[in-house]
């Protein structure tokens, strides 16, 4: 693959753009400024970005801002007007209209009745989730091609974008690969900026990885896992984990193994409405 060094240079340039976008979601989108970060011509760089990542820069920014906004609504008490402003909308009405189109309900309703609410105890004191929604599955050991991520778990998409770009440049993308996120720290006790995770894929065949490559091979233990299939936005994951650990695990009679939990993503967030995203949360068991 004689063109690999050339592709790698484009990957590195556009990865700088993605890093800037993820780290500056509160700021206005400036196409010319992003072109400078990419060190590419303002006339052409956006076509290169769209060809490599499958969406326009504006679509990427809008998707990431709405994803973050859903997290604010599901997991905090930030006023909706402030969420709208931080998401780049000059009016609450415009934000509400766009959010409703993406998530199927306006922001205020989502905060109260979004899919994350099913993990909250009901007023009767019973749990709205039931124990049978978790299945025990024997999972084989896997080797995961991965990219490290440090920081908010909600920002792991940055590492996934980098990984997908690396795979695409080597013709390793396939319908058979499995998308995996591995999470090492408890966000309840570890500072957000220090959270460790890995964005990964399990490929249908083994590949050789150079020691100088930006990716690594991470082994994932085999054995029994408690698997909770979750349908809905990624912003709901915090509530799902709280229920899985705080309700299911303590009532199940099982113990968690000394290994990280992982998530398997069953569809593509670039092509799937947030309400239809499917994720399997896999908790290792003794």
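Q: What amino acid sequence fits the structure above?
A:
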């Amino acid at each position: 693959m004689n063109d690999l060094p050339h592709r790698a240079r484009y990957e590195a340039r556009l990865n700088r753009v993605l890093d800037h976008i993820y780290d500056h979601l509160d700021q206005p989108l400036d196409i010319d400024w992003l072109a400078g970060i990419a060190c590419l011509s303002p006339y052409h760089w956006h076509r290169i970005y769209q060809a490599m990542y499958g969406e326009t820069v504006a679509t990427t920014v809008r998707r990431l801002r709405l994803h973050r906004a859903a997290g604010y609504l599901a997991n905090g008490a930030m006023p909706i007007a402030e969420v709208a402003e931080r998401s780049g909308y000059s009016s609450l009405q415009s934000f509400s209209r766009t959010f409703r189109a993406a998530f199927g309900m306006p922001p205020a309703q989502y905060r109260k009745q979004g899919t994350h609410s099913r993990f909250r105890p009901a007023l009767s004191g019973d749990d709205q989730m039931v124990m049978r929604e978790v299945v025990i599955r024997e999972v084989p050991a896997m080797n995961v091609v991965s990219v490290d991520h440090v920081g908010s778990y909600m920002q792991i998409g940055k590492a996934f974008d980098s990984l997908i770009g690396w795979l695409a440049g080597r013709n390793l993308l396939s319908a058979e690969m499995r998308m995996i996120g591995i999470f090492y720290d408890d966000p309840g006790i570890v500072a957000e900026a220090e959270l460790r995770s890995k964005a990964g894929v399990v490929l249908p065949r083994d590949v050789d990885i150079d020691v100088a490559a930006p990716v690594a091979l991470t082994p994932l233990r085999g054995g029994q896992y408690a698997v909770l299939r979750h349908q809905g936005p990624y912003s709901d994951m915090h509530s799902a984990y709280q229920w899985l650990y705080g309700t299911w695990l303590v009532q199940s009679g099982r113990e968690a193994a000394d290994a990280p939990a992982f998530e398997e993503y069953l569809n593509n967030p670039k092509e799937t409405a947030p309400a239809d995203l499917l994720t399997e949360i896999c908790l290792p068991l003794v």
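Q: And what stands out in the fold?
A: The chain has nine helices and eight strands.
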